[in-house]
Write a structure and sequence with these properties.
The complex is a heterotrimer of chains A (449), B (303) and C (311). Chain A has 15 helices and 15 strands. In chain A, the strands form three sheets. Chain A has a seven-stranded mixed sheet, sandwiched between helices. Chain A is 42% helix and 18% strand. The longest helix of chain A is centred in the C-terminal third of the chain and has 27 residues. With 449 residues, chain A is α/β, with parallel strands linked by helices. Chain B is an all-alpha fold. In chain B, helix 1 packs parallel to helix 6. The model of chain B has no long low-confidence stretch (mean pLDDT 90). Chain C is mainly α. Chain C has a two-stranded antiparallel sheet with strand order 1-4. In chain C, strands 2-3 form a two-stranded antiparallel ribbon. The mean pLDDT of chain C is 90. Classes of the chains: A alpha/beta (449), B mainly alpha (303), C mainly alpha (311).
């Protein structure tokens, strides 16, 4: 072993790295580069990741063409076209942190939008702070992001998952006040556990006599639910709560329906909406479903909803599901903040004639807003989206709150429809600033306003 | 009492499923000493192909019962195509390498096949389902025991598991080919010297093993939504079953599947909290008591 | 003198890595960081492999080390980098010493599978622990180093510094050990245990010792990863993570302590660029790379350098 060999090896490695580095030529802003991160592989790709990616592509095409409805009719972000870079969210939080750095530093994106997994969101947020890069989280259920910490560069344009459980209980008690025995089947990972814990705590608070019979916690991706279904049938609950999603939900429904599990038990699917069109005949009539917000079938009719439906349908062929709605919220949120910052700059520019260097002043005022200006405009912003108005009012103006809705399914001519829709406004289902979700639920869920 | 019956039935059904997905793995290990991680991909390939075949069958409006033939055909097709391609195209260059290297070769293969499946079938979950909702799963109806409904499809699963086990036992113990195979298992070089075509034995074994993985996938397809990544979830469980029974042992795989199936069913009924660990706890306990699994032969000491 | 030249090279590279830090682009530094953390884990895998053992469950110690570091931050509120690394080493040493009593009796695929079972049991335990964030894990931020507060902006460099120093120190000590009498036993055990026993050396205690050393290295790697990434979750002990370590070890070869470090760097670079340029098929890129290495470089990447030396 010679030193020279090692040194030569090290030099070779370094050279390889240097060569592999893409050459950057930084010019004036001719486009705004958006890094979009979502699941392109793994179990979350089908139901969430790919619809989100399709939505992102459709939205960027439409925004760049200036075809979105008011107030979003200007092209791109404030007239500057958007350029999309998409990467895979699969591989776990540790890898996502490395990929985030790559995205920001090697790809030099101007803003990062994305992340569906709660673990990924939690891990990426502090890195966004370190790298000082505007990052907009698209989904991730966990309330911990802004309850455990506060961030300057991180925004989430979607409400967190606590309201799903709270609204589910409110809806259930409205429609089935006599409920006595409750069971749950949820995946054994953070979202499934939180979902069940929130639901259990809420129903115990609102209806103290309720008996919690069993909580089935199959492994994520288990696929075979025979024994769980037997256990659920033999314990005969009135209500079965489930936050299953994706392939797991579909497999469970496929295996449970022929076994008459739902003959005597009311099913509550917290995140059931994206699967309705996929499960005709397998989702029993009378199932309570939610869409994690006023998305999809729950979105009130508006120009923005029609716009998203049209561009998504043109690309994918079906109606957009809730990940598509969340993606739209994130893009429109950034656009709204960007353009608000732009207007504020122009508005604040020295009145003509009063300044010495009019030309320079004007150029400065009309230059694209910098990141700090966008962030200032984003905080506490309120903007329109396909799922209704989004208010960035929690987490010091970084966390969105929205109302939500639940409904009941019925099948008509082989199509699953949702009826008896009830809306719950944000103050009723969201904890106030400074209070963690579980504490708020246990303290009786006072309206936050 | 009714709980115990339910545990027994649920356990048996799950054990049958485990046996079907694990038996090909133990066969390939027994003969070729390859712990085949790509077994999970072959399982997934079987499932995806079954969806394609069955749905095409339904789309033509042929009688729904024929979809069972499509499940079988899908498994055979995957076995006959993927098995030879992988064995001839890749594995045969690797024989004689370290066992760990072989595991990694199949791991690489697993990564490649995951993406191949994604490129061919996309990432949307798929169902075995006809235009009017026909599915082999619901087609057979239910049976009832102590107040619980079970689909008859589960009986089919049990039947396939028993038939597979019986057929393999018969081939291994009663036929000439099986006896030659056992010779190869015991001493590859000596068998080759005696004129047994070891290359051919490996070729046939891997093809049969691949087909068994695909049978597992095809039979599972109608009961789940077929989704990318399903192979990864199955492979570790299948490993556990095979290791518990003793690698390369056919009765071992059966007993391993039975134990894991029963323990899992019991934990779901009596202590759902433990379900997540059940398989690995059983594996650790068995390996601690019997380091080489329940069925393992004595080993020759080479000095 | 062979041992001297590797040791000197370790010293030279340590200095080069530390001096180069301010000039590296941020992403390159984090890539090097991750590669060094992986490299430390794989150093341990290399020692095991030389002893003829492959663990498919080393994620257990990688994760345990990371969680030990996390506990220092969460429970004790002492976010000190050095303390975190020390806690990781201590925790993994204790656990591996106990599990090693059992595992030292196992060989080949059975050793691999029992390790896997233990790592999956830890995974199950962590998934069940809601207070530790279940599968979401939790964030940690190390604010001091041996009691000295580090400014926010300098923290990245501090994390990098401790990673470089710990990795290189591990490499140095392991290199020394491999050249000692006991260290040389490793390959003898791999080739023929009975002969080693007949020569009067205890195979079992050597295997046990090597298991503990490799576990501690994995723990240190995990703690450093936790410090650098700032987030830990149970995925660190899930089987594909352990598989990745085995893969890097095979990719690297066991010829020299530099092999795992170089192998980890190559692996991370390939993965990072595959993610970026082939987001839909990065798994395929990795798989094909793996096959190419195993077919054309059965001795791992290190054999390239060795071949060159021989020529």
């Amino acid at each position: 072993m010679k030193i020279t060999t090692v040194v030569r090896g090290a030099v070779a490695c370094a050279t390889a790295l240097a060569l592999a580095m893409p050459a950057f030529a930084q010019d004036k802003k001719t486009s705004i580069k958006v890094g979009f991160v979502t699941f392109l592989s793994g179990p979350a790709a089908g139901p969430f990741g790919v619809p989100a990616k399709m939505a992102a592509e459709a939205i960027v095409e439409s925004l760049n063409a200036g075809k979105a409805p008011a107030p979003y009719q200007s092209k791109g972000f404030g007239g500057i076209p958007i350029e999309l870079v998409i990467i895979d969210e699969a591989g776990g939080a540790t890898k996502q942190v490395s990929e985030y750095r790559t995205l920001v530093q090697r790809q030099e994106v101007d803003v990062v939008i994305g992340y569906i997994g709660s673990g990924d969101c939690l891990a990426v947020a502090p890195v966004a702070e370190e790298l000082k890069k505007l990052t907009v989280l698209v989904d991730c259920g966990t309330p911990r992001i802004f309850e455990d910490a506060s961030y300057r560069y991180v925004f989430r344009t979607r409400p967190h998952a606590t309201m799903d459980a709270v609204a589910a209980v409110l809806y259930l008690l409205d429609n089935r006040p006599a409920v006595k025995r409750v069971s749950g089947i949820n995946q054994n990972y953070a979202y499934g556990q939180d979902s069940w814990n929130d639901f259990e705590a809420t129903i115990k608070t609102l209806k103290p006599g309720v008996e919690i019979i069993s909580s089935q916690m199959p492994k994520f991706g288990a696929g075979q639910y025979g024994a769980e279904i037997s256990a659920l049938i033999s314990s005969a609950p009135d209500v079965i709560h489930s936050s299953l999603w994706g392939g797991d939900l579909e497999a469970f429904m496929l295996q449970a329906q022929p076994r008459d599990l739902f003959k005597n038990s009311q099913l509550v699917l917290v995140a059931g909406e994206p699967y309705l069109h996929r499960l005709p005949g397998k989702i029993p009539d009378g199932t309570i479903v939610g869409a994690r917000g006023t998305n999809g079938v729950f979105a009130p009719d508006s120009a923005h909803k029609r716009w998203l439906t049209e561009i998504y349908k043109a690309k994918v062929g079906i109606d957009p599901n809730y990940p598509a709605y969340s993606t739209a919220e994130a893009f429109l949120g950034v656009k709204a903040a960007f353009e608000k910052a732009m207007r504020q700059k122009i508005g604040a520019a020295t009145p003509m004639g009063a300044a010495k260097n009019v030309k320079e002043e004007m150029e400065k005022a009309y230059a694209p807003p910098n990141q700090d200006e966008i962030i200032a405009a984003f905080e506490k912003l309120s903007f329109e989206s396909p799922s209704g108005r989004v208010n960035m009012s929690l987490g010091k103006g970084h966390q969105a709150v929205m109302g939500t809705a639940y409904g009941t399914t019925r099948t008509e001519n082989g199509v699953v429809k949702v009826g008896n829709i009830k809306y719950y406004d944000a103050e009723r289902v969201t904890p106030p600033e400074g209070m963690t979700s579980l504490d708020w639920i246990k303290s009786g869920m006072k309206r936050s306003k | 009492m009714s709980h115990l019956i339910a545990v027994l039935i649920d356990g048996t059904i799950y054990a049958s499923w485990l046996f079907v997905i694990a038996v090909g793995l133990t066969l390939i290990y027994g003969v070729m000493k390859i712990l085949n991680i790509a077994h999970g991909s072959l399982y997934a390939l079987g499932a995806f192909t079954a969806v394609t075949f069955c749905n095409a069958w339904f789309a033509h409006g042929y009688p729904a019962l024929g979809s069972f033939a499509m499940l079988g055909l899908a498994a055979i097709a995957v076995g006959l195509v993927a098995g030879p391609v992988i064995e001839r195209g890749l594995l045969r260059f690797m024989y004689g390498k370290d066992e760990v290297v072989l595991v990694l070769v199949t791991y690489a293969l697993f990564l490649i096949l995951e993406d191949v499946i994604k490129l061919v079938w996309g990432v949307d979950p798929l169902f075995v389902q006809g235009p009017n909702g026909e599915s082999p799963y619901a087609l057979l109806g239910n049976f009832e025991i102590s107040g619980l409904n079970y689909p008859n499809y589960s009986l089919l699963l049990i039947g396939v598991a028993v038939a597979t086990g019986a057929a393999l036992t018969w081939v291994l113990t009663r036929t000439k080919a099986g006896k030659l195979l056992i010779a190869v298992i015991h001493d590859r070089e000596m068998s080759a010297a005696l004129g047994i075509d070891v290359g051919r034995t490996y070729f046939v074994t891997f093809t049969v093993g691949a087909m068994l993985a695909a049978v597992g996938g095809a039979l599972t397809a109608p009961t789940v939504s077929v989704v990318t990544g399903m192979g990864a979830e199955v492979i570790v469980v299948a490993f556990a079953v095979v290791v518990i029974g003793g690698l390369g042992s056919l009765p071992g795989a059966a007993l391993g599947a039975f134990i894991v199936g029963m323990v899992r069913a019991a934990s779901i009924h009596f202590a759902p909290e433990l379900e997540l660990f059940s398989v690995y706890l059983v594996m650790a306990v068995v390996l601690i008591v019997r380091p080489k699994g329940l069925f393992s032969g004595a080993e020759v000491r080479k000095i | 003198m062979k041992s001297d030249s590797t040791s000197i090279a370790i010293g030279v590279i340590t200095v080069v890595l530390l001096v180069a830090a301010p000039f590296l682009p941020n992403w390159a530094m984090s890539l090097a960081n991750v590669a060094l953390c992986y490299g430390t884990v794989v150093l341990g895998m290399m020692l095991l492999m030389r002893t003829g053992l492959v663990s498919f469950g080393h994620g257990l110690y990688y994760c345990l080390g990371a969680y030990a570091a996390g506990m220092i931050d969460q429970m004790l509120k002492l976010p000190d980098m050095a303390l975190m690394v020390a806690a990781a080493a201590a925790a993994t040493a204790v656990v591996s010493a106990i599990l090693g009593l059992l595992l030292a009796r196992y060989r080949d695929i059975f050793f691999a599978m029992l390790s896997l079972a233990f790592s999956m049991i830890l995974y199950g335990l962590l998934v069940k622990s809601s207070s530790l964030g279940s599968t979401d894990g939790f964030n940690i931020s190390a604010k001091t180093i041996v009691g000295i507060a580090v400014a926010d902006d300098a923290r990245r460099y501090a994390g990098y510094g401790i990673t470089v120093v710990m990795t290189m120190l591990s490499a140095l000590l392991l290199n020394r050990y491999l050249r000692s009498h006991r260290g040389r036993l490793a390959e003898a055990i791999r080739d023929n245990e009975l002969r080693v026993e007949y020569m009067g050396s205890s195979v079992r205690s050597t295997v046990h010792l090597h298991y503990v050393i490799s576990a501690v290295l994995a723990g240190i790697g995990g703690a450093m990863m936790a410090i650098n990434i700032g987030h830990i979750d149970p995925e660190m002990t899930y089987w594909p993570q352990s598989g990745e370590f085995v893969f890097i070890a095979i990719l690297s070869g066991t010829g020299n302590v530099f092999a795992p470090l170089g192998g980890a760097l190559v692996f991370e670079t390939i993965r990072s660029f595959a993610y970026e340029y082939s987001p839909n098929t990065w798994q395929m890129v990795l798989g094909i790379t793996m096959l190419i290495v195993m077919i054309f470089l059965p001795g791992g990447l290190w054999s390239l350098i060795q071949r060159r030396k021989a020529a």
